[in-house]
Design a protein that fits this description.
Elements: H1 2-185, H2 192-281, H3 288-305, H4 312-374, E1 378-383, E2 393-398, E3 405-406, H5 412-429, E4 434-438, H6 446-459, E5 464-468, H7 472-477, E6 480-488, E7 491-498, H8 499-507
Parallel strand pairs: 4-5
Antiparallel strand pairs: 1-2, 2-3, 6-7
């Protein structure tokens, strides 16, 4: 077998040598083919570049052709517009020549109307002056009547006061007279002095009644005078009102005439300018009949056009300014909106980053405290959505010996310990000088309370913890105890115990 293999070795070596030669030839052919392929690729790239250049040149020539064609069309349109403008200019010249004859006739009529208006204005001016004089006279009469009325009213008031005093005095005398008459009728003798007094009082009463009658007559006379003065005053007021109405009417008419006169003067000045301009451009061979016909057609066209809005340009300028202002405001609002959007995006980005960092830190602390309190197991916080700012938080917990579940499936004590773990994680993330825990250990058994107290001891190294509890194990782990006791009915007192000091005293 070895000899046979020894005989086959040269043949195999010869076959290997032939195979290597063939392989070398194939490699040479492969290099040649790769060189040819590279050369073909280079030629293809050159051809493709040339093709792209030819396409670009064709596109440039096509664009240039389109530009030239557009310019040719534009020139053709401009030529048509020039021809149309020349035709329209000739028509306008014809119409202007026709308008000349009408304007010349209207100028004479307007001049005559202007003279008539001036005459009417002068007459109205004279009437206005007369009305003003009459109004002033009526005003003076009214003022005099008002003064007389005030004087009469003052006199009337004075007489009314006197009349009131006389009536009061007469009433007192009448009462006194009745008293004396009653005494006389009952047989009482008031004495001679009383009789004289009565006579004096009767005399005074008679005089008072006479004065009262005179006062009433005077009062009636004054009231009649007041009515007369009021009637005269009313007539004066009516005259003044009528004079004012006439004055205002004439003033308005005067203003109307002044406006009409100014309008006519402006129109005459404009027509004179138009006439002079038309006369300068009017050819020598113009015929009156032809231009009259053209003028009539032009006037009819003007009538068909209707009234012209003379304030359209001003309104357009105002609206243009308004649009420019609104565009500026719109641009400012867009810029402000973009700025605010950028700020909002930046705030959202920073909020997400901070929330993610805080959430990860809180999750790590929660994962650390949970096994400390439960003696094993694990717990994590999970977001309900991918959007950090809109997502809720789900608490997933797996106490020792149980499967992973949400906090809602845990028992009461497990829920309490899980909540305590989350609370401690939050407190570790952002510690405060004080932390108050109110009967957190109430639902816990002794083993869980021991782990709870051990965790409290760790947290007490960085913060001062105030724990409200009834659990003995928790009390034993505290440094200082503060208790409330009632030594007497209705009287509460606070008892403080230092545990370390109590231990030392007990040891002694």
């Amino acid at each position: 077998e070895l000899s046979r293999l020894g005989e086959e070795v040269p043949a195999i070596e010869s076959g290997v040598a032939e195979s290597e030669q063939e392989l070398e030839g194939l490699r040479t052919n492969l290099d040649s083919l790769e060189t040819q392929q590279k050369s073909a690729r280079d030629r293809a790239a050159v051809i493709l570049q040339k093709l792209n250049e030819d396409r670009q040149a064709y596109a440039d020539r096509q664009a240039r052709f389109d530009q030239i064609e557009g310019r040719r069309q534009q020139l053709a349109d401009e030529s048509e517009e020039i021809v149309s403008e020349l035709s329209r200019t000739g028509s306008e010249l014809d119409e202007a020549r026709r308008h000349f004859a009408i304007a010349e006739d209207e100028t004479g009529a307007l001049e005559r109307q202007r003279e008539a208006l001036l005459t009417e204005k002068e007459a109205l001016t004279r009437k206005l002056s007369e009305a003003r004089v009459q109004a002033q006279a009526a005003q003076d009469r009214r003022h005099e009547a008002e003064l007389a009325l005030q004087h009469s009213q003052a006199s009337l008031e004075s007489h009314r006061s006197s009349l009131s005093r006389l009536q009061a005095q007469s009433s007192r005398m009448q009462q006194r007279y009745e008293q004396l008459s009653q005494q006389l009728s009952t047989g009482e003798d008031p004495g001679v002095a009383m009789g004289d007094r009565l006579q004096i009082l009767l005399t005074q009463r008679s005089e008072a009644e006479q004065a009262l009658a005179e006062g009433r007559n005077r009062h009636s006379t004054i009231e009649q005078e007041i009515r007369q003065v009021q009637g005269a005053l009313s007539e004066c007021e009516q005259e003044v009102a009528s004079a004012r109405e006439n004055l205002e009417s004439k003033r308005l008419k005067d203003q109307e005439l002044a406006v009409r006169l100014q309008t006519l003067e402006e129109q005459i000045a404009h027509d004179e300018y138009v006439l002079s301009h038309i006369l300068e451009n009017l050819p020598q061979e113009a015929e009156e009949a032809e231009w009259t016909t053209r003028s009539e057609r032009l006037a009819q066209k003007i009538v068909n056009i209707g009234p012209v809005n003379l304030v359209a340009i001003e309104e357009f300028e105002e609206q243009a300014e308004r649009k420019e202002y609104l565009d500026s405001q719109h641009a400012d609002l867009i810029e402000a909106l973009e700025t605010l959007s950028g700020v909002i995006r930046k705030i959202d980005r920073e909020t997400r980053d901070r929330f993610k960092s805080t959430f990860d830190s809180l999750n790590q602390g929660f994962s650390d405290f949970f096994p400390q309190l439960f003696g094993g197991g694990n717990a994590v916080l999970q977001l309900t959505e991918e959007d950090l700012l809109a997502a809720g938080v789900t608490v997933m917990a797996r106490p020792p010996g149980k499967r992973n579940s949400t906090i809602n499936l845990l028992s009461g004590g497990e829920k309490a310990l899980t909540a305590v773990a989350l609370l401690f994680a939050l407190f570790k993330l952002n510690p405060a000088p004080f932390c108050i825990l109110d009967e957190v250990d109430a639902p816990l058994d002794d083993r869980n309370v021991e782990r709870y107290c051990k965790t409290l001891r760790t947290l007490s190294e960085v913060s001062q913890l105030v724990v409200i509890t009834h659990n003995k194990i928790t009390m034993e782990s505290a440094d200082i105890l503060l208790g409330v006791t009632m030594g007497e009915p209705g009287v509460s007192s606070i008892v403080s115990v230092d545990i370390d000091e109590a231990v030392r005293l007990a040891a002694q």
